[in-house]
Amino acid sequence: MKIEKKEVEHIARLARLKLNEEEKERFGRQLGQILKYIEKLNELNTEGVEPALHIVPLQNIMRKDEVKDSLPVKDALANAPATKGKYFKVPRIIE
Amino acid sequence: MELAELAAHEIHCLLKKKEVSVVEVVDAVLTRIDEVDDNIGAFITVNGEGAQREALRIDQEISRGREILPLTGIPVAIKDLICIKGMKTTCASRILNNFYSPYDATVIEKLREAGTIFIGKTNMDEFAMGSSTENSCFGITRNPLNPDTVPGGSSGGSAAAVAAGEAIIALGSDTGGSIRQPAAFCGVVGLVPTYGLVSRFGLVAFASSLDQIGPITRDVRDCALLMNLICGYDPRDSTSAATNIPDYTDSLLNDVREVKIGIPKQYFGEEVDEEVAEAMREAMALFKRHGAKIENVSLPNTEYAIATYYLIATAEASSNLARYDGVGYGQREKSDNILEMYEKTREAGFGDEVKRRIMLGTYVLSAGYYETYYLKAQQARALIRDDFEKAFQKFDCLLAPVSPTTAFKVGEKTDDPLKMYLSDIFTIPVNLAGLPAISIPCGFNSLGSAIGLQLIAKPFNEEMLLRVAYTFEENTKMSR
């Protein structure tokens, strides 16, 4: 089993990864092998089984809507690759 | 024995008796790092000056009457995906190569308050994805017991550091075995707590429904002491459990009389090395001699655990790792076009295994595949959890190998991702079910590689794990 190059490219685009040709070939092959192994799950009868969305029984977790200190702007921007004033700077989005 | 090789509770006694100072303890560990880390590669960042400064400060406070708590002044190594304010948190990834944490993780706050000393940040598989600590952009970590072999992973740096005397205790994280398997390979103790027992605030997320932080230590007593510090409810982690935390040292009893230990037959198949299986049989015999009741049990859905895990973990990872876009933090590749900026940033920033898992996770969540893969995996997960629930109606804990083999050779499995995944076959089901489990040393094979014994208990019964593990340790003195 092998994932076709076109599909690899589609998935890579969804995942925002710019793969090179060698990676497309290799990942296509390796993902195929892994998915083939995963087909094992088809042996398992899961009809009527309630999926385990969470492994522990938690309901919606609410907290009080209180104003608290947040990370200072200076700290929040400290790791940014590019900033301008109080903002993160990115390439132009709107023409 | 050298200071750097003592357990934390032993150092604690020396500190109490004023036979050593915190500065001396920290210097002993830093000297050891200087001597051996070029060969082992346990650390990404060594906090040398910071640790010495902190040691001096704590010594001064002690001389002014500060109470010496069980882990005060103890050098601790932290896996490099847990945030310490002002220090780098790289996750062993190029994309976070230059990221400095703006805040402390909750577990770090707790350790800081107790006066432990952060000796450094340890190497790991990139974003905790791997079983050998070979997927790090900073190079591999080697097993201190045999440098030709891997230390296990993904918390390989933390386990190697504790085994080599480069730290006294350490924190790791376990998503599919990442604490227990490296602890087993390096001959130390590792515990993955029940899902929800330890806050993950400040832990970089890989697969949120599976990740847990836990201790890696030289013996079971240190494990209990570290558990005493890190457990507890935290409103900043919405999956945190509001449960009472016992004093885990109360569970350090050399007594397994009437304890019912189940032996899951699916964990003793032909993939298990004969020497590993033999070590398990000897452990069972020991427990039996000390009054435990040993019986076989079946966990029929075990064989579906790896397939289930690699669907759920990769799906969650593909979503969690979407945040690395080169905007707010991390390394950015230049482009005038924002889409291209994202793509080039992520292509250059992530290593092979991370890309592979993001691709797989994206694939299984993409249109048309959700029910075939993701929903099916969640149903399988429910069945795997139900197997354990049934077993725990009858048993206090389960005994199994941590891994089918001992530490494998460096490079042995790097070309075959599926083969690497299969080495986690006995640790993954525990994470899928959200259970606590401990890995303790139980001997060596004929080549001198360490063998790890795994004990698994029902949710929030870490006390049973510690009691059974402590009994084993006391009657074998196998740790360290």
UniProtKB/TrEMBL annotation, chain A:
It comes from the Bacteria. Keywords: ATP-binding, Ligase, Nucleotide-binding, Protein biosynthesis, Transferase. PANTHER family: GLUTAMYL-TRNA(GLN) AMIDOTRANSFERASE SUBUNIT C, MITOCHONDRIAL. It is an enzyme of class 6 (ligase). One of its GO terms (biological process) is translation. It catalyses: L-glutamyl-tRNA(Gln) + L-glutamine + ATP + H2O = L-glutaminyl-tRNA(Gln) + L-glutamate + ADP + phosphate + H(+); L-aspartyl-tRNA(Asn) + L-glutamine + ATP + H2O = L-asparaginyl-tRNA(Asn) + L-glutamate + ADP + phosphate + 2 H(+). Belongs to the GatC family. Allows the formation of correctly charged Asn-tRNA(Asn) or Gln-tRNA(Gln) through the transamidation of misacylated Asp-tRNA(Asn) or Glu-tRNA(Gln) in organisms which lack either or both of asparaginyl-tRNA or glutaminyl-tRNA synthetases. The reaction takes place in the presence of glutamine and ATP through an activated phospho-Asp-tRNA(Asn) or phospho-Glu-tRNA(Gln). This is Aspartyl/glutamyl-tRNA(Asn/Gln) amidotransferase subunit C. HAMAP family: GatC (MF_00122). InterPro entries: Asp/Glu-ADT_sf_sub_c, GatC. Its EC number is 6.3.5.-. Heterotrimer of A, B and C subunits. GO terms for molecular function: asparaginyl-tRNA synthase (glutamine-hydrolyzing) activity; ATP binding; glutaminyl-tRNA synthase (glutamine-hydrolyzing) activity; transferase activity.
From TrEMBL, chain B:
One of its GO terms (cellular component) is glutamyl-tRNA(Gln) amidotransferase complex. One of its GO terms (molecular function) is transferase activity. The active site is at 79 (charge relay system), 154 (charge relay system), 178 (acyl-ester intermediate). One of its GO terms (biological process) is translation. It is an enzyme of class 6 (ligase). Pfam families: Amidase (PF01425). Its EC number is 6.3.5.7. It comes from the Bacteria. The keyword Nucleotide-binding applies. Keywords: ATP-binding, Ligase, Nucleotide-binding, Protein biosynthesis, Transferase. The keyword Transferase applies. It catalyses: L-glutamyl-tRNA(Gln) + L-glutamine + ATP + H2O = L-glutaminyl-tRNA(Gln) + L-glutamate + ADP + phosphate + H(+). Residues 24-466 form the Amidase domain. InterPro entries: Amidase, Amidase_CS, Amidase_dom, AS_sf, GatA. Heterotrimer of A, B and C subunits. Allows the formation of correctly charged Gln-tRNA(Gln) through the transamidation of misacylated Glu-tRNA(Gln) in organisms which lack glutaminyl-tRNA synthetase. The reaction takes place in the presence of glutamine and ATP through an activated gamma-phospho-Glu-tRNA(Gln). Belongs to the amidase family. GatA subfamily. This is Glutamyl-tRNA(Gln) amidotransferase subunit A. The lineage of its organism: Bacteria.
